[in-house]
User: Fold DUF1876 domain-containing protein from Streptomyces chilikensis.
Amino acid sequence: MLHTAVGWHVELEFKEDDTRTRAAAMVRLPDGSEIRGHGHASRHDSDANQPRVGEEVAGARALNDIAMQLLDKAHREIDAAAGRPSHPISV
Assistant:
């Protein structure tokens, strides 16, 4: 069976200061919906200033937020199509 390739558009933005990094992520799905997630990272005073590491941690947390929302969305769509509650989708 031949399947059509589908793409998702993902955006990540960061705001940083000397000790904190905040990430905002957004994924645009083919059905036109958008899901947004947020994440943060904090640097301890004794840690070296490594902005890239803060971005990686905050970005991963924002993407994880989106992942959990996508699982919830998929679960609701399965329930709606089946007309009954289904088993939870685990990570």
Remarks:
- Helices lie at 51-82.
